[in-house]
């Protein structure tokens, strides 16, 4: 009986708590399988503990706190599972505990703030300006971070690095702009201090980490002989490319395979276009064709062809020494085909208006500038348009605008949806027609309720 097993904690798996020197916002599955894993495997791991804050709900923090921050990474390959306890998270905190966040961001020993708050969260912190001006507690991760940075300035605790680990192009600068705009709305002096004292590091992050299922929890109990309510399942592959300064130091993440580069754009584009772009195609085309997971969709020749054609287009615009595009593509087919990783298409499908802007639009534009149609990139937009036609409730930061567009028909509807991604391209009749024609190839089928429900954000 699993209830008789001990709960995972630092008695069951003795592990010294490292001092908090990293603060993380967005205590989700990916943070645990990626940044926490890399920190655990740094040569100086004993000096770097993470205090990790949830975004919207206390649940993950409560569960992890009851386990002294420990959790299991289940590394899942085609041939089997391996299990590892990770102890780098030394404090798990409800994001609503803004006082603790402010205290830690202002602490001189804190050197790094990492973020996995989802792509959409960089766009809606503006409401926090009013709260911050009124001296009230902000509700968004970036609003809370600005309050912490204000306290750091006031206590003269020195510079630090903010490291975005979300799937965004130029994520360091996106974070910089979002934080600076918020700070400037509250206190111009604070914005100036952030400008000179906070280093925004850009990263390309990669490790497929689907949402944990009850079956995963049961498997860990059975195999590890302890109860872990917060394991994460991830593929064996992992990659972290970083670019930027760490004025107050950082863990030796390179010992765990992280790579530090001067120019990150080629790596970001390779990952965002080839991996995440393919994921978006599979998410919409795959669900429209009745599939539930990435591996199932990839096994469908229609979906595979859409992915391969998009990769051909995107690859023409990926240059840089050592990018190894053919090898990267081959590895992606293996990774996506890992049928033991049940990566649900519904999870990937959310927040399309933010994601497609970075995954489809740059390739579509580059192809058109080169005098070609950009058909494969346009198809990614077309399958999304078909999908939201049948599934108007899909989570999206611009869901009201998507609903308004859905009230239109034909080319007008497509133009309105396209305008959410790129207002200029939406004014070009040839592109609107291309997307409209391509979307006709994919029926606007209702997605079964079970698939939509599993995509509900944690
Ligand atoms: N899961 C992966 O395979 C993977 C791989 C690479 C990058 N990423 C990046 O990491 C992000 C998080 O992925 P995850 O799998 O950990 O997801 P998750 O749902 O497990 O965790 C997301 C965390 O962000 C918080 N959050 C989400 N939306 C928020 C909002 N609107 N406001 C405030 N907080 C919010 C959640 O509360 C949670 O703490 C992704 O959006 C992506 O950008 C994920
Ligand atoms: O919400 P998204 O689309 O940014 O993330 C869902 C997956 O595509 C993504 O998490 C990949 O698994 C990941 O980017 C692999 O490193």
Structure report:
By secondary structure, the chain is of the alpha/beta class. The chain has 2 domains: 2-262, NAD(P)-binding Rossmann-like Domain (Rossmann fold), CATH 3.40.50.720; 266-454, Orthogonal Bundle (N-(1-d-carboxylethyl)-l-norvaline Dehydrogenase, domain 2). The protein has helices spanning 29-33, 35-40, 59-65, 98-105, 128-133, 141-154, 171-186, 188-197, 214-224, 265-288, 294-298, 301-315, 325-336, 345-349, 352-359, 361-369, 375-390, 399-406, 410-421, 429-439, 449-454; strands at 20-25, 49-53, 71-77, 80-86, 89-93, 112-115, 160-164, 198-206, 232-234, 239-243, 259-260. The strands form 2 sheets. An 8-stranded mixed beta sheet has the order 5-2-1-6-7-8-10-11. Strands 4-3-9 form a 3-stranded mixed beta sheet. Helix 7 runs antiparallel to helix 8. The longest helix is centred in the middle third of the chain and has 24 residues, at 265-288. The protein is globular and about 60 Å long. It starts with 19 loop residues before the first strand and ends with a helix. Mean pLDDT is 93; it is low at 448-458. The structure holds nicotinamide-adenine-dinucleotide and D-Mannitol-1-phosphate (44H).
Secondary structure: elements and pairs:
Layout: E1 20-25, H1 29-33, H2 35-40, E2 49-53, H3 59-65, E3 71-77, E4 80-86, E5 89-93, H4 98-105, E6 112-115, H5 128-133, H6 141-154, E7 160-164, H7 171-186, H8 188-197, E8 198-206, H9 214-224, E9 232-234, E10 239-243, E11 259-260, H10 265-288, H11 294-298, H12 301-315, H13 325-336, H14 345-349, H15 352-359, H16 361-369, H17 375-390, H18 399-406, H19 410-421, H20 429-439, H21 449-454
Parallel strand pairs: 1-2, 1-6, 2-5, 3-9, 6-7, 7-8, 10-11
Antiparallel strand pairs: 3-4, 8-10
The structure holds nicotinamide-adenine-dinucleotide and D-Mannitol-1-phosphate.
D-Mannitol-1-phosphate binds next to α10.
